[in-house]
Amino acid sequence: MQVDISDSNLRILNDANAASRPDAIVHEIESAISKSIAGTLLENSLFPLRPGYGTLGRPNILHTNYLALTLSGKRLFCYKIHIESPGSDPSVKTSTVKRLVSRLLIEHFQLYLNKVATDYHCLLYSSVEIPWARTYRVTDPKQVGGIREYHARSYKVYISPTGTLSTEELMTYLSATQHETKVPPVPQFMQALDVIIGHFVRKQILSVHTVTGHNFHASASSNEPQPFGYDRESVGHVSIKAHAAAARMLFSATARYPLWCQAGLLSTIIKKYMLNRSSQTARLENFLRGTHVHVTPSVQNYHGLRHGTDIEVIIGLANCGDGAILQYPPKVARYGSGPHEVEVFLESRQTLRTGSSSRRGYVTLTTFFKLEYHIVLDLNLPVINVGTPELPIYFPAEVCTVQAKRSLGAVSPLAHHDDLVRVSPEAEIAGLKKRSAALGLTSSLNPMLIAFGIEASPDPVTVYARVLAAPSVLYARELPARVVQAMWNVNASRLIRPVARRSWSWIYLDPLRTETVDTRSTALTKSLNRLATVLRRMGIFTSGSIRGKTISSTKDHAKTQIEDAVSFLQAKNRPSILLVILSTRAKSLGNLARLACDINHGMPAIEVMDEWLAHADQERYAKIGLKMNLKLGGENHMVGISDLGFVARGKTMVVGIHVVFAGAGSQKSPHSIAGLVASADSHFTQWPAEICLQHGQDLHIHRLEEMLKSRMCSWVKDHDNTLPDDIVIYRSTVPGCGYGSWVDKELPQIKDACRASQPTWHAHNDLPRITVVLVDEGHDAQFFPTTDTESHRYNSPLAGTVVDRGISEPRQWDFFLQSHSPTESLNRPTRYLVIFDEVFRRRYQARSSDGPVNLLQGLTHRLCYSSGESTKARRVCAPVWYARQACNRVRSYHGLATKPGLFSNGQDADDDGKVVTSSVLQVHRTVRESMFYL
């Protein structure tokens, strides 16, 4: 379906939503710029101009979390702050810098406080020129006063000018309708506005401290209407950032809400949370993890392991295997056991009040607390652990109290507890206005805005959007599945190309098991028989499983036993794939199984929790079958691409690239892992991967040429010794990295890989055309529906919503796409930005300007439905999703690898000339061309 966004359809929308009408001037300027660009589409491939705006889909109007800023043409004077330490160490702590800059403003800029803004670190902006910019002597105020005043340290603070910025020049550029207009330093303006607007909050001494430098703690009054939830009045963090758009600057204030609860007994809070959630133990543990509780003083030392502390932090629930290193470990019947199922060992010195002689041995917490403290415990409430898994310290919920407004876990921009955050769009918009007031975005609260000529709109910006129709999801005989809200069911469908194999086997990792062998074997056999029935119906396996192995050792001995078990099964039975069954207490052993199967033995393996098998859920069994078929090289479903022109001809390779830190996302990790996947067929169903381990914290890939060349060589072998005509690369980004760095460091490697992969007898042929699209999931844009009929559950925009007007710089080719059905409140869309294009515009150079835009948006939307192991659309397109899965797979076991030659080493030099070592993962040859990372 195509619509004309500029004519009657918009008039209908505007009439229906008169109060939410997008700015007509902005729309006119965007259209005028688009027309001026239309004749210059092929002038440059690097950072291409936006070829037009999309027309596919049903029109819609959405609220955003942006406020429009009006700039009155003032000139900004820019200065740099440098502080010199009086000691031998030239560095100055961040907290000290903040105090010194604050002192500087009070002592030397008192008459100009409303005309000077700073980030309290290194930047200072003024609405008037500072003729006295020079060196100042400032004493650290932390040491002024009291008996230590004579020891106060004096610092030199240098204020040096760095130039000026004209907001009039900026607004002229943003309002111009010709693309040839002189481009001002837009990033510098955005940085200046961030500092100027954020100065108000910093001045109010509201805990200014986050990673990016633009986030602040802010709070407002709260009525605390619920016993627990995400407090949308008390904001944990507000991330502020300025953006350039057509005819205006935009300003976002994105809230991160702390999860909190009222004061009271932990038992009461758990009971309220567990309403309608009686079987969701893992979610309860996530809900409680990190919560500070006050333990009743009289029971603090009941097990002799804790002395005198009354504030504890919950690390989880009682679990089997806790305290395995102890001489007398606790006996826990199951994960999340109640007090009657947890036994602790009492030493002889711990006497019960009711007994004349001491007791020594195991006793349940129910019995102990009843006899010792006369407390009757609720058997349905789980026991919490405030120690560690190795040295557990158990308490029942009845003796723990949560303090008033106590935070539960980390602050998050998204809700982990979906039914606590069903907030209407009106409530979100009202919250945005309150946050704007807290940030001082009114001249009555913040006179500095007048001095700098800044005025913020009171209402959030609204934008035109479009809702793309869900693509066809096809199974065997091209029968379409019924897609509802970006989800579908596979139970009754057969796969497109099931890889029929005769045998599969399993290993069961269950350390410190408590059940008898017969009981466990019987239950496991029933579950595996049910799974085998589903697999036969899907056409994957023709028989049941071969008897596998059960491993009951702890982590210290499990590695050898897992290796032996995989080797034994592989040599004796030669199964096509291995099912690795993990008990709740064996999650950490899954990494050892992945290493053994992926690297050492080349055995395709699927991990599954034993709880999944025990539930006899046909849908879960089907998802296991989907993963099995993909790992064996089969095809589950395909997405209809017949309307995607040249993409449907099967000569286009789609590539996904992702980089993560090796240490579970920590930037302190000395390694980073880069993953690259590439489509191997015209249906985009198989995505083999290449993995590279980089020594250092650089998020750019040093051996991208080698990784892409390997995938292209595989393509040549499978496609009659020919290279693809086009390569479309989706590259995930990291916030804070400039777009230019991707071009400088990675684009040359991509071109070199194409040249190196070209067969010698086709040397005269043209090289593949390349398009690179950056995928940004860390942006701060949010969209809210304006009418009830245009909202999804959790009051989020409909799946398939795409926005490319109103909040984007009209000369950049980007768009926002929410492809998925949200499972959390107000999920953010994903932003796609084209930084290099030789494919889409050339294919449509003789057609309308919206052709390249519609084609790229349509391809990206379909790729979100292409994850073969899933029955719902992903938040991000399949190539990036699979590249991330490959990185996470290797990250889970790269530190355990000891096999010689696991990585092929190489060296490259970074921009500073330093040697950076990188290593390509050597996956076992038998699984190298498969999706081993699932």
From TrEMBL:
InterPro entries: Argonaute_N, PAZ_dom_sf, Piwi, RNaseH-like_sf, RNaseH_sf. GO terms for molecular function: nucleic acid binding. Residues 577-895 form the Piwi domain. PANTHER family: EUKARYOTIC TRANSLATION INITIATION FACTOR 2C. This is RNA interference and gene silencing protein (Qde2).
